[in-house]
Amino acid sequence: METFKLYIDGRFEAGAARFLSRNPATGEPWAEMPEARGDEVNRAVMAAQRAFNDPAWRGLTAGGRGKLLLRLADLLEANADELARLETLDTGKIIRETRAQIAYIAEYYRYYAGLADKIEGRVLAIDKPDMESWIRREPVGAVAAIVPWNSQLFLSAVKLGPALAAGCTVVLKASEEAPAPLLAFARVIDQAGFPPGVVNVITGFAAECGALLSAHPAVDHIAFTGGPETARHIVRNSAENLARTSLELGGKSPFIVFDDANLESAANAQVAGIFAASGQSCVAGSRLLVAESIKERFLALLTRKAEAIRIGAPEDPETQFGPLCTARQKQRIEEVVGKSLEQGARLVTGHYALEQGGHYYPPTILDCDGHPDAACLRTELFGPVLSVQSFRDEAEAIRLANDSAYGLAAGVFTRDLARAHRVTGVLRAGVVWLNTYRAISPMAPFGGYGESGSGREGGISAALEYTTTRTVWLRTSDEPIDDPFVMR
């Protein structure tokens, strides 16, 4: 049984309480985790607040912050295999993806290392001849960064990287589901040499950890990735401290295939969009919208690819598809798929029992044509279930794509450049992929509309999320003020 610790104020500690984490592939407990409660949460936040005002961090130059981030990137890269092993064990994500993703995450820290000394203010062309005025960009303060279990090292990087580049301090809360990779990442942070309290890593349950963290009076900004319902609780909690929020939430993303698309390429991208990571991705392309004239041909191609996916043990490098993270997810997916079938959806493939045990659920495709109220079309399942609808023309494709409370991502497959511009211009999505899907880069911001949240992560805009502005006025004249009772 492996054991993990909290990381608070530059020290590792066991925590007042402990809980077990289970291997999704077997259902068996494999590690003992620390649970942060009131005292630990308070000490983590107060450590971040003290570090924010400590000259060891506040007095560090922007270039100095950049060098620490570069060191963190190098150490992350050096520890990628071990972190990938832990993520695969604790979440069930396949090892071929965790290894590749963690190695690439180092580039996010390098990007923000380079950006640290480029967060600049500006001089105003003020309308008073005896005055000068300028704006300074300042770090917002102590940040509560709350991330889910899926892609947690990536979702931490897009918060931790820009926050540290801007000069903030951070309390990073890992999900109580599968927190091992982030708790292990705390050891890498410690080795990087950040002053004590600049980064703190905790985990715990909603009432005893999440609620206290998001309502803590010393928290200045809350960066959250997760579901809309949890986000609503966080926003309500933030009324206690008036903290700013940036929310990257769920999605029910449309994947649109027009009749002129390269079908082989589109099918491969659809497999990546819904069956990679066993569908456990906020940008999962879970709604296939396909031109009526090619629907049967494309669905046959996609079904062959789905049924050929290698399902197996997540630690096997040959495995393409692993288990869901929790038994609760599997049960919920089974219920929604069952309800959708009762509502008239047609099972194309999947929805059968697998021999592997654990939390496995097979790649599943449901044809929902003629049944627009099927539960699978509206519900974010966070699993490997694709819902299919056909469209007759471009206008109907756009209408179906935008018929959702979510607005995170979308995919469009067409060879018609004019159509690509028209469609991307009206899709209600913060990220649109044209003739590809599930591509990321440190330079590219992502985020959504509606129930997919607010704010953007990635790119320069993410660093500005963690800053506030200070306006400075300088009077250049030595003459006495004419009338002290009149505003200048």
Provide structural commentary.
The protein is of the alpha/beta class and 488 residues long. The chain has helices spanning 38-53, 55-58, 62-78, 80-91, 95-115, 152-166, 180-192, 206-215, 228-238, 263-274, 295-307, 327-342, 375-378, 394-402, 417-426, 459-465; strands at 2-3, 6-8, 11-13, 17-22, 29-35, 122-124, 131-139, 142-146, 169-174, 199-203, 221-225, 244-248, 254-257, 287-291, 346-349, 364-367, 385-391, 409-413, 431-434, 453-454, 467-475. It has two domains: 2-249 and 448-472, Aldehyde Dehydrogenase, Chain A, domain 1; 254-434, Aldehyde Dehydrogenase, Chain A, domain 2 (3-Layer(aba) Sandwich). 39% of the residues lie in helices and 21% in strands. The strands form five sheets. A seven-stranded mixed sheet has the order 15-16-17-14-13-18-19, sandwiched between helices. The longest helix is centred in the N-terminal third of the chain and has 21 residues, at 95-115. The protein is globular and about 80 Å long.
What are the key terms here?
globular; alpha/beta; 16 helices; 488 residues; six-stranded mixed beta sheet; Aldehyde Dehydrogenase, Chain A, domain 2; Aldehyde Dehydrogenase, Chain A, domain 1; seven-stranded mixed beta sheet
- Oligomer state equals single chain
Helix content: 25-40%
Structural class: alpha/beta
**CATH domain topology of the largest domain:** Aldehyde Dehydrogenase, Chain A, domain 1
Q: Specify the number of helices.
A: 16
Using the alpha-carbon principal axes, give the shape.
Answer: globular
The side-by-side strand order for the widest beta sheet comes to 15-16-17-14-13-18-19
What Rg is obtained from the alpha carbons, in whole angstroms?
A: 24 Å
| Estimated share of beta-strand residues | 15-25%
CATH class call of the largest domain: Alpha Beta
Please identify, by name, the CATH architecture of the largest domain: 3-Layer(aba) Sandwich
Number of strands: 21
Q: Largest sheet at a glance?
A: 7 strands, mixed
- Poorly predicted parts: none
Tally of separate domains: 2
Q: How confident is the prediction overall: mean pLDDT?
A: 96
Distance between the termini: 69 Å
By CATH, the superfamily of the largest domain comes out as: Aldehyde Dehydrogenase, Chain A, domain 1
GO molecular function: oxidoreductase activity, acting on the aldehyde or oxo group of donors, NAD or NADP as acceptor
Family: Belongs to the aldehyde dehydrogenase family.
Protein name: Aldehyde dehydrogenase
Pfam family, one: Aldedh
